[in-house]
Design brief:
The complex is a heterodimer of chains A (177) and B (334).
Chain A (H helix, E strand, L loop, with lengths): L2 E2 L5 E2 L4 H22 L9 H12 L6 H15 L5 H15 L1 H4 L4 H25 L12 H17 L15
Antiparallel strand pairs in A: 1-2
Helix pairs in contact in A: 1-2, 1-3, 2-3, 2-4, 2-7, 3-4, 4-6, 6-7
Chain B lengths: L19 H21 L4 H31 L3 H39 L10 E8 L7 E4 L12 E3 L4 E8 L4 E5 L6 E6 L5 E9 L2 E10 L9 E4 L11 E9 L6 E8 L7 E4 L10 H8 L3 H11 L4 H12 L8
Antiparallel strand pairs in B: 1-2, 1-12, 2-5, 3-4, 3-12, 4-5, 6-7, 6-9, 7-8, 8-11, 9-10, 10-11
Classes of the chains: A mainly alpha (177), B alpha+beta (334).
Chain lengths: 177, 334
């Protein structure tokens, strides 16, 4: 199915293999970030969540809550944290976005930023609340910045992930589409 | 249009499936149950091990650029600095060889004295050197990951030491890595002895953002504790070798309205140590070393059964040791 976006671009259909590769790359990036920063990285944006969010928004029939849950478990394992904490956060954020996916897709990536921020902030609140309720310690105020940084990353990431779908410009003057 | 981009699957028979709300609720409940199970019961470790094995290649590939960058950074360290370090290490080594000679004499003397008095022979702990790869990014707990695992003979509950003193304890073992819970972590307890007075007590981890301390709890306000006292392991727990430095008393707060003194201590071992020594639990006479260590590991409840299922140790000894410790079951086995 050829999709149109807000700007009137015609988009090629997405290749399933590209979805899988992007998710795998995001998982690797997460592992690299965790190794590079360790505990001081509580404010670092969660790239994996953003990539799942993108696909759950634009390909809801392919990437849904099951993926969110499974990859959340992987994130928990990478963090060596409480098993299920990331999974719960991912599931809630993805379901929030999928609830409004028809509405959200009407906006351009930049206009989506505040709405995505809201979902991410709810997710982060839930994440911290679960951690505190489970009797673990408070991660520090730096973790409050995390959803904001993620929201800042949203527009470039969406542009990047959409790139393979963009039709190459083919200025054929005789047969304008 | 590129080939292979069309969906060739047959359309689903039931087009709608369960609603989004239902699916969310199911997954959220599943996650909650998993968290409870991870925290309280012993169901999760097999899943954890499987996930860890499945993620190992992803981790390895994802980390390789970071490790490469770190190695490169280390490679270009000033040559002069490296030489200075080598000189310092060499001088320390010369000093230590003297101490070593003295130590050998003392050890022989001690052994013969103990034999004369009919005391149990003191056993030197045998350890495995390990490198701390990185701190677990989980901001809620104080853990670091060491590069040795069950393949190198690391067992659950092993004490982790560095050149200065106790760093922590192994709280989860994977095949090629081990999670080390740091001394200052939430819920960490370690039996200590005050070197000056000989009084024993228990120190609790007190994590804080950007650092952490230990607290001696339930010490009467009249207890003889002073700022600067050195706390060492007591050797009564069957895990830590005796007389290893743990912490120095940092502040003593005696309040008239409280029965207990508030004693805060600063750990001696480097919380961000790079190289550590992981020694097997010492063991108590009559109780298997692993049984004791599995009990006292910070996540003993969940992990005790993990080691029970994975290791070849008998279950009964562990349960026996558990009931000895808690005293609830009343069926204490020696």
């Amino acid at each position: 199915m050829i999709m149109t976006t807000h700007h009137g671009h015609l988009l090629l259909p997405v290749k399933p293999r590209f979805i899988v590769w992007s998710l795998l790359l995001a998982l690797m990036a997460e592992a690299a970030l965790l190794l590079g920063t360790g505990r001081s990285g509580v404010w670092l944006p969660d790239v994996l969540l953003l990539v799942i969010l993108y696909w759950a928004l634009y390909q809801p029939q392919r990437v849904g809550l099951g993926w969110a849950f499974a990859l959340g478990l992987c994130a928990d394992m990478l963090n060596y944290g409480l098993l299920g904490q990331h999974a719960l956060t991912y599931v809630v954020v993805i379901s929030l976005v999928q609830w409004f996916h028809r509405r959200l897709k009407q906006f351009s990536a930049l206009e989506q930023v505040p709405q995505v921020l809201l979902a991410l902030a709810i997710g982060q609140l839930l994440f911290i609340a679960v951690g505190v309720l489970a009797g673990l310690t408070w991660p520090g105020w730096a973790s409050v910045f995390k959803p904001f940084l993620e929201a800042l990353l949203w527009a470039p990431l969406a542009w990047l992930l959409q790139a393979p779908q963009r039709r190459p410009l083919d200025p054929d003057v005789h047969r304008p589409l | 249009m590129a080939l292979g981009t069309l969906d060739h699957r047959a359309p689903p028979l039931f087009s709608r499936g369960p609603s989004l709300l239902t699916k969310t609720l199911i997954y959220a409940l599943l996650a909650l149950a998993l968290m409870v199970a991870d925290r309280n019961w012993a169901l999760v470790p097999p899943l954890r091990t499987a996930l860890s094995a499945a993620l190992a290649p992803v981790q390895a590939v994802g980390r390789s650029p970071v490790l490469l960058a770190q190695d490169l950074g280390r490679y270009f360290v000033d040559l002069h600095q490296a030489q200075t370090q080598a000189d310092t290490a060499h001088q320390a080594l010369v000093g230590m060889s003297l101490q070593q000679a003295e130590l050998g004499r003392l050890r022989a003397e001690n052994a013969s004295l103990r034999q004369l008095l009919g005391l149990r022979q003191y056993q030197l702990p045998q350890g495995v050197g390990a490198q701390i790869m990185y701190a677990a990014a989980d901001a809620y707990s104080r853990k670091v990951i060491a590069d040795k695992g069950s393949a190198d003979g690391i067992v659950l509950g092993s004490p982790v030491l560095d050149a200065q003193g106790v760093v922590g304890q192994v709280s989860r073992v994977y095949l090629h890595s081990a999670e080390v819970s740091l001394l200052i972590g939430q819920g960490y307890t370690i039996p200590v002895r005050n070197q000056r007075t000989g009084a024993t007590s228990v120190a609790y981890g007190l994590p804080a953002v950007g650092g952490g301390r230990l607290e001696l709890k339930y010490l009467p306000s009249t207890a003889d504790v002073q700022t600067g006292d050195m706390l060492t392991t007591s050797g009564m727990d069957g895990i830590y070798p005796a007389n290893v430095k743990v912490a120095t008393v940092e502040s003593v707060d005696r309040r008239t309205d409280s029965t207990f003194a508030r004693v805060y201590c600063k750990p001696v071992g480097q919380v961000d140590a790079t190289y550590v020594l992981i020694t097997p639990p010492v063991g108590l006479p009559g109780v298997e070393a692993q049984a004791v260590s599995a009990l006292q590991a910070p996540e003993a409840k969940a992990e005790g059964a993990a080691s029970a299922s994975s290791s070849s140790q008998s279950n009964k000894t562990k349960r026996g040791a558990k009931s000895t410790k808690s005293g609830k079951n009343g069926r204490a086995q020696p």
